[in-house]
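Today's session is about reading a structure prediction critically. Students often jump straight to the picture, but the first step is always the sequence itself: look for stretches that repeat, for charged clusters, for runs of hydrophobic residues. Only then move on to the predicted structure, which in these notes is written as discrete structure tokens rather than atom positions. Here is the chain we will use throughout the hour.
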Amino acid sequence: MLAIIGGTGVYDLSIFEQVKEEIVQTPYGDRSVLIGTVGTKKVAFMTRHGEGHKIPPHQINYRGNIFALKKLGVTNIIATTAVGSLDAEVGPGTFVFCDQFLDFTRNRVLTFFDGAPLPVVHVDVSHPYCETLRAKLIEIAQEKELSFRATGTYVCTEGPRFESPAEVSFYGKIGGTVVGMTGIPEAVLAREAEICYTTISMVTNLGAGISKINLTHEEVLQVMEENKKNFHGLISLAIQKWAEKGECSCQSSLKEFGGFNHCIKGIL
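Below is the predicted structure for this chain, in token form.
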């Protein structure tokens, strides 16, 4: 099954039919997941910030969310993120299909495997986003003639505050393309769970110091609303073209450790 994780501004289920809620029990608490259909495809949908955008980025239950999707049989995740641009040439409304990340979070649990009774696991993230899913999204963006960047580095900060101009300048100088607050540890946990994962990052604003105006959350929501049609079109077509039985190396990322299901026996 394919799952969509909706970030800031992505709460609309209008492309889904026959939607029902499932409460999934996990070692990290019960999680709510909506299950619906898009055409002939069964799809899971989860709002990262909860109903009404009540959960700040540093308080999101990332482990519970990914574990719940894994338990439901999800094999592929397309996550959406609202991001600020670290490059004046990558303006609001641009889709960025990131292929790397830089982690500047401070207080988050970054792994399922944080001590006994679970084993010590070191997962490879040389290619942190699923290349198969990324390639399909890029193909669709080209087909729909959207404004996009095929590669980019996602800088993840702790939040919930916006970044300072000095930080934005620094992140850009070390190779960052966009900056957000939710991409990590989500991407890493999905890789540990052997789920194909990629992200659609929508630029909603220029970073502080690049932008000529002060940043507001309202600005972020406004740009997301203005680009809702493009977002829905991209996601809807991606679901339709998703190959349900596709095999990918992401789904055997813990092979040397016996696989994710084998590794988590200590907490089930």
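Discussion point for the tutorial: Residues 2 and 242 are 8 Å apart (CA to CA).
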